[in-house]
Amino acid sequence: MNFIFKILLLFTKLPLRILYLFSDFIFFVIYHLVGYRKNVVRENLQNSFPEKSPEELRKIEKKFYLNFCDYIVETFRSFTVSSTELRVRVQHINQNVFQEAYDEKKNIILLAGHVFNWEWFNALAMAVPQDKSFPVYRKVQSGFWEQKIKELRTRFGNQPLEAKEVVRHIFRNPNDGNSIYLFVADQTPHVSEVTYGLNFLNQKTPVFVGYDKLSTRMDLAFIYCDMKKVKRGFYQVNYYRILPDGEKFVEHEVVKKFHQRLENTINKRPDNYLWSHRRWKYQNAIKVMGT
User: Fold this and answer.
1) Where are the alpha helices (DSSP H) in 90-236?
2) Most buried pick, 28, 179, 260, 286, via CB within 10 A?
3) In whole angstroms, how far apart are CA 3 and each of 8, 10, 34, 78?
4) Are 182 and 172 in contact (CB under 8 A)?
């Protein structure tokens, strides 16, 4: 496996315009020949957009697979891409929210969704006033890929944290405005951990709430990452401060506001979301529903 990975790293040093030819080939294979998770994608799209016609849904489906294949080659490219190239390819808008949190001496919780390409946030660590950046990841079954994910998210001065460690780390770390924690926050909780759900994309949706206890117990700055694919290989991320309705967040408020913003992002550009994920497989395990 390690030998194959080294070959892939050499491959990723090719210009992106060449890598996108491979993306087109991958698209042909997984969409037209293999039909990778087509049933999952179609069910998710139909349930999320019941108002759309079959023709509209097929257009979104096809564009999703094209974007998904770009994501695959871009993710491998992430192992060798330079910070200079990422600064050109990913435009970070409204960065003043990071300076505001720094001045307020509040550590930051960045909340992103599975919107392409979330892996290209890494170079953000070099563009903000905060010295410490902690991407949060979840363990995978393969020890090899576990290590590679950590290597990927260690680039550009980041310090990756496993999801089970992050809450403890945040409580112990000084809340001085000098740290950023990046959550891909629309993860599906394990069935044993489903405690709360929302109406999200027209469906009962179990949601991850690990960051919610932080909002009610600590004075942190919560920032939503609105990712937009401008064109192939180029993205914009607009950052929005998520503020409480009162002086402090009440229980599940930040969870609701994050999913409202994410739903708005998805509705504007539905083909950029990860529809192949079995996002709603545990919806019948929801114990409490939000409004």
Assistant:
1) 96-103, 143-154, 163-172, 212-217
2) 179
3) 9, 11, 26, 18
4) no
Check: CB of residue 262 under 8 Å from CB of residue 275. no
Cβ pair 23, 69 in contact under 8 A: yes
- Residue 250 has a CB neighbour count (10 Å cut-off) of 13
Contact 47, 62 (CB under 8 A): no
Number of domains in the chain: 1
Instruction: Determine the structural domain holding residue 121 and report its residue range.
Output: 1-291
Beta bridge partners of 224: 111, 240
Residues found in the chain: 291
Q: How far is CA 216 from the centre of its chain?
A: 23
Over its C-alpha atoms, the chain yields an Rg (Å, rounded) of 19
Q: Write out pLDDT tens, residues 162-189.
A: 888 998 999 999 999 999 999 999 988 8
Residues 101, 128: Cα–Cα separation, whole Å? 11
pTM for the predicted model, two decimal places: 0.93
Pairing between β-strand 179-184 and β-strand 108-112 as defined by DSSP bridges: parallel
Quote the pLDDT of residue 92: 94
C-alpha to C-alpha distances, 74 to 21, 57, 208, 258, 276, nearest whole angstrom:
12, 25, 27, 26, 18
Contact 183, 111 (CB under 8 A): yes
What's at 78, amino acid-wise? S
